[in-house]
Specification:
Blueprint: H1 18-35, H2 41-49, H3 60-71, E1 74-77, H4 84-92, E2 95-98, H5 116-123, H6 130-148, H7 152-164, E3 167-170, E4 173-176, H8 179-182, H9 185-193, E5 198-201, H10 204-208, E6 220-224, H11 227-233, H12 238-246
Parallel strand pairs: 1-2, 3-6, 5-6
Antiparallel strand pairs: 3-4
Helix pairs in contact: 4-6, 6-7, 6-11
The chain binds fe (ii) ion (FE2).
């Protein structure tokens, strides 16, 4: 039987070159110049709490030691994307699979596969928050249920529109908490300020019906009011949820339904 252990590799941190540490520093510092007023403060604070800095590519065990203590999560090294069921099993066990290679200098703006910058700088910080840490585990359990029903696509949509590309409402305006965004220079600004994409209040059912694109900026984002809202959404009766979804059509990326409200972008920022 396939098991998590078959996908875990050795991190091999010593193999990183000085050029790679320098590229990490460049990526880190470039993101920091645009984070203020656009990225969730929890993400920025958590980078500091986990000692993820521009200095060098972090070592997994150093981060895991803090994470285990805070929320019971840890990082495991994997070679790249892993099969969906294995991925959900890892998350269910509070193990976040991270790649351990860094993009090449000519890939600073776009990389199809996740790399260590996306995984560690983008995904790991929010796992310090107890509610988000609980959400990730609950999401994995819901997704395994979805897979049993042959509903992998709907599980992927939840991950995509929350963990990768989620926005949150704050008293100071919209912010992003999605790893796919916070590790992207262009989308960090675009997601909260550009008038083009639609920003729709989060509902798990709506998210699970909505198509997304992987090769371009998003046409719509879903906005939560709190991380508790995300976690609470996973607690509903999964069978009833999937049965209800079976009776509803999918929704195209960027489409707004009749009667649906959208949320205005933030006023553009000077940096
Ligand atoms: Fe990701």
């Amino acid at each position: 039987m396939d098991s998590i252990d078959n996908y875990i590799i050795k991190e091999n941190w010593d193999a990183f070159t000085q050029q790679e540490h320098d590229l990490w520093k460049y990526l880190f510092e470039r993101q920091m110049t645009i984070f203020d007023g656009r990225v969730a403060q929890e993400h920025i604070d958590s980078l500091k709490q986990l000692n993820i800095s521009h200095d060098r590519i972090p070592k997994f065990e150093e981060i895991s030691t803090i994470l285990r203590d805070r929320t019971g999560w840890e990082i495991i090294a994997v070679p790249g994307l892993v099969p969906a069921e294995i991925f959900f099993e890892m998350l269910k066990n509070r193990k976040f699979p991270s790649t351990c290679f860094l993009r090449k200098p000519d890939q600073v703006d776009y990389l199809e596969e996740p790399d260590i910058f996306h995984d560690i700088f983008g995904h790991i910080p929010l796992l310090v928050l107890p509610t988000f840490a609980d959400y990730m585990e609950a999401f994995a359990k819901l997704s395994l249920k979805a897979m049993e029903r042959g509903d992998l696509v709907r599980a992927q949509r939840i991950y995509w529109f929350t963990v990768e590309f989620g926005l949150i409402n704050t008293p100071k305006g919209l912010r992003t908490y999605g790893a796919g965004i916070v590790s992207s220079f262009k989308e960090t600004v675009y997601c909260v300020e550009d008038p083009t994409p639609k920003r729709i209040p989060f509902s798990l059912e709506r998210v699970m019906r909505t198509d997304y694109r992987i090769d371009d900026l998003q046409k719509n984002y879903f906005v939560i009011d709190s991380y508790e809202e995300l976690f609470d959404a996973t607690l509903q009766d999964h069978t009833a949820l999937f049965d209800a979804l079976d009776a509803l059509p999918d929704i195209e990326a960027g489409m707004v339904l009749e009667g649906e409200v959208t949320i205005a972008p933030n006023r553009p920022h000077s940096t």
